[in-house]
Amino acid sequence: MRPEEMRELLAFNTWANRRILGATGALTPEQFTQQIVSSFRSVQETLQHVAGAEWAWMERVQGRSPEKMPTAPEIRDLKTLEGLWSPLWSLMEDYGRGLTQEGLDEVVDYKTFSFGNARSPRWQMLQHMVNHGTYHRGQVITMLRQLGTKSVGTDMILFYRERAAVAGA
Known about the structure:
mainly alpha
């Protein structure tokens, strides 16, 4: 993976997260925390997990190994969630700008929350982080449908089309 490809993946990840937050804005506070059968019990818990996992992976690619997921205050609304997530998106963008091929290929030692010590090339860690978010965003889209609200597309091809349209304007 080349640095410019990873920058695109990180930009896609932030774009898709912002789209999910936008679509989730149609939920009432009760719907946001309503229990639904999925990997996590609600839209709120699913999005909080994605934000926490992204934080953990960004820590790991920078050579730090957090002991556990961050403990966030109970996130009852989107404004609070976005306030916690937005700085992380800025960090990803800044981090992406500084990526080099050598840095992406470097093997990083880190500790996982459940499986002990691990070693991975940095590009695999970042690619996993984006893929993990894609998986859970798909769950949120299903939850939005179950709650009777309009979902949103977060497919990568939509990201590329939107970027092409903006570049052509």
